[in-house]
Every structure is written in C-alpha cells, then in structure tokens.
Write a structure and sequence with these properties.
- The chain is built from ten helices and no strands.
- The chain has helices spanning 3-16, 29-38, 44-57, 61-76, 82-100, 108-112, 119-128, 139-148, 156-166, 169-185.
Amino acid sequence: MKRDAIREFFRRLAEANPEPKTELEYGSAYQLLVAVVLSAQATDKGVNIATRKLFAAAPTPEEMVSLGEAGVTEYIKTIGLFRNKAKNVVALSRLLLERHGGEVPQQREALEALPGVGRKTANVVLNTVFRHPVMAVDTHIFRVANRTGLAPGKDVVAVEQALLKRVPKDYLLDAHHWLILHGRYVCVARKPLCGQCIVRDLCCFRDKTA
C-alpha cells in the first residue's frame, strides 16, 4: 500500500471513529494492566465480566495481594489459563508495591519485568494510559496489516516496526485502536466483511468478499 493510500486509510477510520478506545473496562492504569494480562487468549467481553467483580473486590495492588492467588482465581476462573494468570496478577501487584510504590511504571523495561507482561501488554498500557506513540500488535492487527498490504511482516515484531514507520505520525497515537477494532468487526479472520469495509478500495487483498 502506498503512502497516500495509507494516509487515506487512516483518515477514513478516524472520520468514522474520532475517539477510538479499548473495549476493556478499567478505572486506573493498574486495572488496565491487570485486564490486559488477563486478556491473553481470552475475549475482552469475557475479561470484562470477570474484572467487574474482581476490581470491585480488589481495585488496587495492595488489595489484590491481600486477596491472594486463591481469591483471584475465584473471580477469574471463567477465563482461559486462569490459574497461571491469577499467579501473575498477584505477583505483578506485589512487585509494583515493592519496586514502584504501587504505581504502574511508564518505562517499557520496567513493565516487561513484571510477571505476565510481554511486549504487547506493555505497548497497550504505554499507548492507552500514557499515550506513548507505540504499536501493540495482536492477532487482529497482524492480520489486517498483512491482508491489506498496510504493513506486511512475517511476525508481530516485524509488523510492529513496519507500522511505526508507515503510519502517519498524526494518526499513530490511535492507530492501534482503529486497527484492532477494524480487525475485530470488519476484517475478520475467516470471511472478511469487505462489503461493509470503508477502506475496501485501498486494500490490496486479492480475494475480497462480495
């Protein structure tokens, strides 16, 4: 996809959704961090159902540590990999208290040093809460970037780097949310809804659906 087409691609997405937001529910940077950790191999809808009760019981790192692994498990057992996630949530909460005064750090290295936090999770928090111009690439964004020709890459890191280079700077802060929502609801995995797509004519996908 050429640069003029990329700019038009994001212009249309921005026009259709001027203030895109994550679909995860949270009330603080800490709660978003926990929600993103829980969202691995799970749907945002499923995570929200669990965290509404979890965050009501333990909204802060202190209270999460007090709740303990067994307590957290009871709230998130409807989510995939819940035992390991409960362990990570309590452990990262404890480290936040020990190393960062209970606050979520704004540095990638510090975030990635927390249990259960990888590059994608760190990027989501840095972008969504702290408004850093970074790109969190999940399966939806990886698919959209490759299928449309927007930023092809063999792996998530390659796509991330390609997007950082190709997305116009004035659209970069919200690009993650536009792309994930487009992939979740329009450019879906099995049969993309090309007939409903507002960037269909810009897309390089050869097998567009009717």
